[in-house]
Design a protein that fits this description.
It contains 3 helices and 4 strands; from the N terminus they run βαββααβ. The protein is α+β, with helices and mostly antiparallel strands and about 110 residues long. The chain has a single domain, classed as Alpha-Beta Plaits (2-Layer Sandwich). Helix 1 packs antiparallel against helix 3. It is globular, with a radius of gyration of 16 Å. InterPro entries: ABM_dom, AI-2_Isomerase_LsrG, Dimeric_a/b-barrel. It comes from Nonomuraea recticatena. This is ABM domain-containing protein.
Amino acid sequence: MTTASTAPVPVSLYGFLTPKPGHADELRRLLTDLVEPSRGHEGSLQYHLHEQEDGRFFLYEVWRSQEDLDRHNATPLLRAFMNALPEHLEGSPEAYFGEMRSPYLVAVA
């Protein structure tokens, strides 16, 4: 007899953000300031910021569950970031979201 797993399904959020001309430094600062606090939020499995050669920023997050991501998104830190974002962003973020279908492997240091 098999039983369904009740373990949370990890979710990922990733995408590109393009700064307005002259706003790359401020957008970089805002994004960089999110990394360490977000990594400390309950349920954060991965949180990475990359800068592309074309000037876009790529953000990659993995959360233990949708509930953990929702809790993270409700923090004052994230709300303040989202309020400041339009001033520095060219167009809308190119964002993607989904449940992980491959096993999440935890690295052992």
